[in-house]
Design goal:
By secondary structure, the chain is mainly beta. It has a five-stranded antiparallel sheet with strand order 1-7-6-5-4, with no helix packed on it. The chain has a five-stranded antiparallel sheet with strand order 2-3-30-29-28, with no helix packed on it. The protein has one domain: YVTN repeat-like/Quinoprotein amine dehydrogenase (Methylamine Dehydrogenase, Chain H), CATH 2.130.10.10. The relative contact order is 0.14. The protein has no helices and 30 strands. Helices cover 0% and strands 43% of the residues. The two termini are 33 Å apart.
Length: 358
């Protein structure tokens, strides 16, 4: 679902930014600010591990760090992507990544780099003129999923089995959009969860979760049919600007957390978080929600807590999403711990006590 497209341009070729000492970095609560070298609006962030992370944003912006954020490198702009808004990025190491742009029709695209972002290859362009891509995730280097706003009344769910070279749209039943769910939100590349060994789920406007399952058709025990079920979540759901913006999963406990709200009312705390302990079939609203609209949520294994971020700050929950307490009042869009990104090139790294993030 399109909203808030803004940002500034970036140079064409790879260059190194001056080193930036985290010890001298300003802070926003527990977030240690880093130097991104750009003023682009950043919504894509993916922490690979070992100090490697990738970020993306407006005007074809892609950034990369190999040293824990001491230095962020500005990547070459993919060919023809100077005006695209890269809302999602997925990486496997310091050399290989796929970046997704969000926009109407053919402005939604996938590009791939295999040489540390010096060069990019166009993998796939949205074939639906009425489509709009919201999120992309991968289970491994070959299997990935892509979520798009409804086309002809049904949400677009695509699968690749060859690393993004080819994509197939789901024909499963149950992908019909509710009248309150005109689309999903391309706010943080986290409205879609594609967890290994778990059902694929995604969240939408109107505060709905769609969950995928398979069953054997009568008379055809070998061929499995795909089916989606829709569940209501107790989050803000009135209007096109409200619903679920992000889903998170705690694999150890099986807990799911959904965050969102109404992005036109960033300081409204009601209806901004809910949790589920049964795979997303039943949801309970947080008794003490985050202190505003939230666009991203993630489980922090080091802190043993959930962290949610949005345009008026961040919050933390130590009880599986039931109650939340503020961390800061910064302006944030997306989260891939230990990193968080936001508008005007904002990048920070989490510095909670006892944290051992790589």
């Amino acid at each position: 679902m399109p909203h808030v497209l803004q940002g500034c341009g970036l140079g064409l070729w790879l260059f190194l930014l001056p080193a930036f000492s985290l010890a001298q970095a300003p802070k926003s609560g527990p977030w240690e600010m880093q130097s991104s070298g750009t003023t682009a609006n950043l919504r894509g962030i993916h922490a690979v591990g070992g100090g490697v992370a990738w970020a993306s944003g407006t005007n074809g912006t892609v950034l990369r760090t190999e040293d824990g954020g001491y230095m962020w490198q500005s990547c070459a702009v993919p060919p023809g992507a100077e005006k695209l808004d890269f809302r999602g990025i997925w990486a496997w190491d310091a050399n290989t990544a796929i970046v997704m742009s969000s926009g109407p029709g053919d402005q939604s695209r996938l590009y791939e780099t295999t040489d540390g972002c010096s060069h990019w290859t166009l993998l796939y362009t949205n074939p639906d003129k009425d489509g709009f891509w919201d999120a992309v995730v991968f289970q491994n280097k070959r299997r990935g999923f892509l979520l798009g706003d409804p086309v002809n009344g049904k949400f677009v769910f695509l699968t690749t089995e060859d690393g993004g070279q080819h994509w197939v749209r789901s024909e499963g039943s149950g992908l019909e959009a509710d009248s309150k769910a005109k689309g999903a939100f391309a706010a943080s590349n986290s409205s879609l969860l594609g967890r290994p060994q778990e059902p694929v789920i995604f969240g939408t406007g109107g505060a709905f979760v769609y969950s995928r399952s398979f069953f054997a058709k009568p008379g055809t025990p070998i061929k499995m049919a795909e089916q989606w079920k829709r569940y209501s979540v107790p989050l803000a759901n009135a209007g096109d600007a409200a619903g679920i913006f992000s889903l998170g999963h705690h694999a150890g406990k099986g807990t799911l957390v959904a965050v969102g709200g109404d992005y036109t009312k960033p300081n409204e705390s009601a209806g901004t978080a809910a949790w589920s302990s049964d795979g997303g079939q039943h949801w309970t609203a947080a008794t003490k929600p985050p202190h505003g609209y939230r666009s991203a949520v993630a489980w922090d294994a080091d802190a043993k807590a959930w962290i949610a971020v949005g345009t008026n700050g961040s919050d933390i929950s130590y009880d599986d999403g039931k109650t939340w307490q503020p961390l800061d009042d910064g302006n944030w869009n997306a989260l891939s711990l230990p990193w968080v990104v936001g508008p005007k090139g904002r990048i920070a790294r989490l510095g909670l006590p006892n944290s051992s993030h790589p």
